[in-house]
Design a protein that fits this description.
12 helices; MetI-like fold; two-stranded antiparallel sheet; 3% strand; 319 residues; mainly alpha
């Protein structure tokens, strides 16, 4: 509860900074209207008055905040609908992609890190380490294009003349909901988005597990005759996950940023594409709504990390 209350002034401060930056962009909130070659100075003055842009910036922010608290983030000029409706229509698709990517990155990253720590400096350890360095240095936009080229355009040949070709773009190819069709379209963007996080989680899990496995209480548990899998999963892994939780929470902004690129390349109808369109068309109201929602998600993820600390390590006290 205390952490939640501390997040409120933080989010207000973030919104103030975002409001100042977006409204000082070239053209500001009038940018979509200024693209009209027939607009006159009288039209601009009338628009400023109608939109409240002729008032001081702090007054504009005060009015915006009052409406935003009630869920009214203004009108999207690029989508011709309320900002909240435009975001919510695409929030589910982004949540689906991010959830799948986070699940894959955590499952494979933790498994690879544990396996690498159990067999340190072995051939498998070097292979996993090389894979992790490759994943951390790979530009996501290039990797996404290569996935499209290799798995969607050319496909994977199978014995018997069969060919596996995954969809290259979109969230579905059918008008009605079909689970397998949605999963087919989810494969490539999930691989692209989870690749960097997977490599990061495996490296930190390996490092943390190696440190924990050399601790005295692990040797004591082994001396008592406990099975290796019990020592590994019950005693070592839970303590090794404490620093990994920090990395997971801090990597969520990178996951959100990667979703913007991934959704654009794979034509995924989520908030990432919405953000790119709003940025290109100077839709200030939509940009503010999107950035504020992302800020809430990042702050909430750090709040979850605090809760996870206390669960993983009962010695942690937030006094």
């Amino acid at each position: 509860m205390r952490r939640t209350l501390q997040a409120i002034p933080l989010l207000i401060l973030i919104s103030m900074i975002l409001f100042g930056i977006t409204n000082n962009a070239p053209g500001g909130a009038l940018a979509p209207y200024l693209q009209n070659p027939h607009i006159t100075p009288a039209d601009i003055a009338r628009l400023k008055h109608n939109l409240g842009l002729d008032q001081p910036l702090p007054v504009q922010y005060y009015h915006w905040l009052g409406h935003a608290i009630r869920g009214d983030f203004g009108w999207s000029t690029s989508n011709a609908e309320p900002v909240f409706d435009a975001i919510m229509q695409r929030f589910g698709a982004t949540l689906e992609l991010m959830g799948a990517s986070l699940f894959v990155a955590l499952a494979l990253g933790l498994a690879a890190g544990i396996f690498s720590a159990v067999l340190p400096y072995s051939v498998w350890d070097y292979i996993i380490t090389g894979f992790a360095f490759f994943g951390q240095s790979m530009p996501i936009f290039w990797f996404a294009l290569m996935l499209q080229l290799g798995l969607a355009v050319h496909g994977i040949p199978l014995p018997g003349g069969y060919m596996i070709q995954l969809p290259s773009a979109g969230i579905s190819s059918l008008d009605t909901f079909n689970l397998w069709d949605r999963l087919d379209h989810l494969v490539l963007p999930t691989i692209a988005l989870s690749f960097l996080s997977l490599a990061l989680y495996s490296r930190f899990t390996r490092s943390s597990m190696l440190e924990v496995m050399s601790a005295d209480y692990i040797r004591t548990a082994a001396a008592k005759g406990l099975p290796f899998h019990t020592i590994l999963l019950k005693h070592a892994l839970k303590n090794a996950l404490i620093p990994v939780v920090t990395i997971v929470a801090l990597s969520l902004p990178s996951l959100i940023a990667g979703a913007v690129v991934t959704e654009t390349i794979f034509a995924w109808p989520g908030m990432g594409r919405l953000f790119i369109n709003a940025l290109q068309q100077g839709d200030i109201a939509l940009l503010m709504g999107y950035l504020c929602l992302v800020s809430v998600l990042v702050v909430f993820s750090n709040l979850l990390a605090d809760v996870a600390y206390a669960w993983l390590d009962p010695r942690v006290k937030y006094d």
